[in-house]
Write a structure and sequence with these properties.
Layout: E1 3-6, E2 14-15, E3 20-24, E4 31-32, E5 43-48, E6 51-56, E7 63-65, E8 68-69, E9 73-76, E10 81-84, E11 87-92, E12 120-124, E13 133-135, E14 139-143, E15 150-151, E16 162-167, E17 170-175, E18 182-184, E19 187-189, E20 191-194, E21 199-202, E22 205-211, H1 212-215, H2 223-226, H3 230-238, E23 255-258, E24 267-269, E25 274-276, H4 277-281, H5 287-292, E26 297-302, E27 305-310, E28 317-319, E29 322-324, E30 326-329, E31 334-337, E32 340-345, H6 364-385
Parallel strand pairs: 3-4, 14-15
Antiparallel strand pairs: 1-2, 1-11, 3-5, 5-6, 6-9, 7-8, 7-10, 10-11, 12-13, 12-22, 14-16, 16-17, 17-20, 18-19, 18-21, 21-22, 23-24, 23-32, 25-26, 26-27, 27-30, 28-29, 28-31, 31-32
Length: 386
């Protein structure tokens, strides 16, 4: 029989002898949790002998097991840590130790094989795993299934979406016939070798590929810096001006070109290493676009290049006709924010000229002139016939 206990031991542990345990703010709950972010009935535990299932009731995204988010339900095992809001619970097995000591067999000393330590890691760029790092060794599955080494509990991720493997020190990604696809730097792939600094996306869930060996190399350059395109090399030319946040005078400049009719022909030079898009576009945005979308989109110069990020824009961020939460921009990428379409330029010292989508508007003066002529002609014909 198992117990559940507050991790900080504020109350005695509870034997899980009943079939259902409700946890929440409501006084009728068996486990009362008086916390601001907790609903009256937040979760419940279904107990059948030593099988415990956590059922999510609340619509708040603050329910975790071993720091992995739980969307609908999840089986709990002894010594699992369940977190609701800021409060942690632990499932306790009084009979079995947390870390049972292995039996010492003096007759045979088997060689312990350690997994090879590799420099490869993934950094999650998307919620709910944003900011987490995942070390890659051997083969690792990514998917929605709890058996995956990297579990992403989101509906648009396939149960077994993709597989990472290391061969001769190289990191490879293979799509496992997923429903929504696997993308590397915006390109859909079936399989591909990954490099440090690459952006890996499973549908719209994004990771950054990290090679710690390259980051700590004596040259001081990351793997991403070694493969920088002209887009990101611009960073090296502006590093001297980081203290002021302005670009130093260089041969290369960075621009957004207005393509859609609301900003057609306008050229916006990016002068700061971190740019608030609504401030960049200024009065060229309509009031609704400025308040709803553009104020939530940021452009920032990072180690891997010019990163653009949607931090809650209602209309989303579209890069090259694909909805994304964030991405690294390359020369001539097309970006749409709140209905405003822009072309990104990071190569060359002078702004280019691009074809715009100016909507032709009727010339009012010409229309009045034609209408007046028609009225005069019609009047003349009328009197002539009369």
């Amino acid at each position: 029989m198992l117990k559940i206990q507050f991790k900080d031991k504020r109350k005695p542990a509870i034997w899980l002898v009943d079939s259902v345990y409700k946890i929440g703010k409501d006084s009728q709950c068996q486990i009362l949790l008086d916390e601001k972010s907790i609903d009256p009935l937040h979760v419940k535990l279904d107990v059948v002998n030593d099988d415990i299932t956590l059922q999510v009731i609340s619509k708040k995204n603050n329910i975790f097991v071993n720091e992995m988010p739980v969307i609908n339900s999840q089986k709990l095992k002894p010594w699992d840590i369940m977190r609701l809001g800021e409060t942690e619970f632990e499932i306790i097995d009084p009979i079995n130790e947390r870390n049972p000591k292995p039996r010492h067999d003096t007759s045979v000393q088997a060689t312990v094989i350690r997994p090879a330590i590799t420099p490869w890691m993934l950094e999650a760029y998307s919620a709910p795993l944003k900011g987490k790092y995942f070390s890659i060794s051997g083969e690792s599955l990514i998917g929605r299934d709890s058996a995956c080494e990297i579990q992403i509990p989101l509906g648009f991720i396939s149960r077994k979406h993709a597989k990472l493997s290391i061969r001769n020190g190289r990191l490879l990604i293979q799509d496992l016939n997923s429903s929504n696809g696997t993308f590397v730097n915006g390109e859909k792939v079936a399989s591909k070798e990954l490099k440090g600094g690459d952006e890996l996306e499973l549908d719209k869930f994004a990771f950054k590929v990290v090679n710690t060996q390259e980051i700590s190399s004596t040259t001081g350059k990351t793997g991403a810096e070694k493969k920088l395109s002209a887009t990101t090399k611009n960073k090296e030319k502006v590093s001297a001006s980081k203290s002021t946040g302005k670009h130093a005078a260089t041969n290369q400049r960075v621009f957004f070109h207005g393509i859609s009719s609301d900003v057609a022909g306008k050229i916006f030079e990016i002068a700061d290493n971190e740019t608030h898009v609504s401030r960049l576009l200024g009065h060229h945005l309509s009031r609704s676009e400025e308040s709803v979308s553009a104020r939530h989109v940021y452009l920032k110069l990072t180690d891997v290049g010019w990163e653009i990020k949607n931090n809650g824009a209602a209309d989303g961020l579209i890069i090259n006709k694909r909805m994304q939460t964030q991405g690294v921009l390359h020369d001539e990428d097309e970006v749409t924010i709140g209905g405003t379409k822009l072309k990104f330029q990071c190569n060359g010292s002078q702004p280019r000229r691009y074809q715009t989508e100016v909507q032709s508007e009727p010339d009012t003066n010409h229309m009045i002139l034609y209408l007046s002529a028609f009225v005069v002609l019609a009047t003349a014909i009328f009197y002539w016939l009369k």
